[in-house]
Amino acid sequence: MDITTVTAGLRETLNANQRPTGAWGYRGIQDSVESTCLAILALRQHPSLKLTRATKALMALQNADGSWPAFTGDDPEGCWTTALAVLSLMLVQQGTTKPLASGIQWLIGARGREANWLWRWKLSMVETKVHFDPAKFGWSWVSGTTSWVIPTAFALIALAQARQRGYNRTAQLDGRVDLGTSMLLDRMCPGGGWNSGNGVAFGVALAPHIDATSIALLALTNLEGEPGVQRSVYWLLNRLAGCPSLYSLAWGVLAIAAYRRICPEARESLRDRAEELMRLTEDAASIEDNCTLAVIALALEAVNGDSAFEVRT
Amino acid sequence: MNPDRRRLIISAAGVAVGGMATARLLPEEMLLRDRRPRRSRVAIIAAQEYSESLDGVLVSGLREFHLNLRGKSVLLKPNLVEYIAGVEVNTNPVLVGAAAQAFLKLGADSVVVGEGPGHQRDTYLVLAESGLADQLRSQKINFVDLNRDELFKVPTRATYTGLEHLWLPGTVLKSDFVVSMPKIKTHHWAGVTLSMKNMFGVVPGTKYGWPKNVLHWKGIHRSILDICATVPVHFVIADGVVAMEGNGPLHGTHRHLGKIVLADDPVAADFTCARLMGLDPHRVWHLARAAQFLGNGAYDRIDLIAEGLPLRTNPFDVLPEFASLQMRF
Predict the structure, then answer these.
(1) Domains of chain B, each with CATH number or no CATH
(2) Facing residue for A27 by CB, picked from B121, B148, B205
C-alpha cells in the first residue's frame, strides 16, 4: 500500500468522524480544539464543504480575547490550543481575518508565569530544584502557569509561519519568537531531545519524550546547524526504532522529514519509519483518537514533501 | 462569596484569634463537613513478587471487606507515569490485571482501567512500553485515556485551592466504584505519593496542562485535598511489592517492601502505607489535613484486618528536605 492510498483512507475516516457541529472530539462527543485543528490541517489540501464547516466551527469556538479554549464549554481563559488554531486558520484561509489577527496578537502577548520579575527572581534564587533559566520564557499550557516545551514549540511554529506568510511582521513578534526559541534551547535535555518542561530536575537528567522532541525540532528547523538541535535529531532517530505508538511515531516522522535535507541519517531513516507507520496503521483494528488519525495523515504527507508544521525562512 | 475571598477573610480572622487551635485546624477544615467513616478497614498483605498468585491473594483479601460489587462498574486507576527501563515506576501491570480479574470474580458488572499520565502526552506509549497494554489486551479489559476523555464541570467539595470547580473525565464520574491503585513511592514535591496523590491522574491534561501544571501552582497538597474531596475513592489497592525510596516518583531506588495494602478509605490506606515506609503521616501536609475531614488516620479508628504494622521499620530514604518525615524507633 502506498502513502497516497493510506492518507486518503485516513482523510475518509476523519471526514466520517466529523461531528454535526463541524468540529472533532478526541473520541467522544465533546468538541476538542486540538482535534479540530489537527483534522483541519490534515484535510487542508482537499477543499470541501466539510472543511468549510470545520473552519467555521473553529472560529465559533474562539474566545472574545482572541484565544481559544481547550474544548466546548471550557472556561473562557485562553490556552495552548490557540497556536494550533492560528496555524490551522492560516493554512485554510486566504488573507487576514479578524479571528486570525486577534489570535496572533493573543499569542504574541501570552507568556509563561516566569515572565513576571518576581517569579523570575524566585525561580532563579529560591526554588532552584528544577534547573532552568527563567529569563528565557515561552508559552504555557494554561494562563498563569510556567512555560512548557510543547505549547512553546506550537506557538513558535504558528508565529514563524505568520511572519513568513506576511500576517504579522512586527518587531514584537520577532522578539517573542527569539525569546521562545532561547527558552526551548535552554530546556533541552543534556543528551539532546526534550522532556515535557525541563532537562534537569533534582540533580537528575530527565529523559526526552518523542512527541515533545519532535514538535520542538519542527519549531527549530531554522537552527538546524545548532549542535543541540543536531544531538536531538540523532536522539530521535535512535528512539523511533521500534516505537509502538502511532501517535509518537507520526510526530517523529514529521520531524525527521523536516531534517532530511541536512541529515543523511534522517533521510535514510525516514523511509523505514514511514513504512512502519503505514504498517502499524493498517494493522490497527481501529484508531479511535482523531488526533492520532490526523497526525498520521500529516506525517505521511510530510514524507511526500508537504508539511503543515515546517518553517523555513 | 468567592472562595478565595472567603478564605482570605476567614484566614485573617484565624490569624487574629491565634492560638493552638487555629494552628492545628486551618480555616479550610472549619468549613468542611466531617466525612470520615466511623471506622476504616485496612489489610496489609504479604506479596513477595508479581506473579499469577496475586489473583488468589487479591480475591481472598477483597472478600474480607464484604464489598457489594454486584452489577457495579469498576474503574481501576493505576499510577502510570512514565516508562523507564528497569525502574519500577508504575503500578505493576500484573497487579492491575489481578485486580481486574478479582473484581469481576466478585460480581462487578464491568471493569475498566483509566489513567491520565502527568508528564507524557502519549498515554498509549507508556501503556505499551510498561507492559500494561499487553496485560489488558490478554484479559480483554478496556483502557481509557483520562487526559482525552469527555469532561464535565464539577463543583469542588473542598476549598484548599480556591478553584470553584474541577473539570473531570466522564469515565470517572460514571463509574460506580473507583479504585485508586498507587505505587508506594516517595515524592520529591509531596513527600509521598500514595492513593490520594495518585488521584492527580484523573485530572485531565487537556484542561490543566502537563504535568497538571495549574494544580502545581495551586499547591500540590492543596490540590490533592480538593481532588480527593471531590472525586469519590471507594477503595485502594496499593502496590508495595516493590516500592520506591529516595528521589521518587521517577528517579528513586527500589525498595522491596513485599506488601500490598487494601483499604476502604484512602486516608487510612495512606496513613498505613506511610507507616510501612517508616514515615510519619501526620507530617505529610495533605495527609494530616485529610485525616481531619476526609478519612481516618488515627490508629484507634483503623482496623488492621490482616497483618499488623511491623514493630520496627527502617525508614525509606527521602530527599533531605523530607528528613523530618522519617520516624525514628
Answers:
(1) 40-325 (3.40.50)
(2) B148
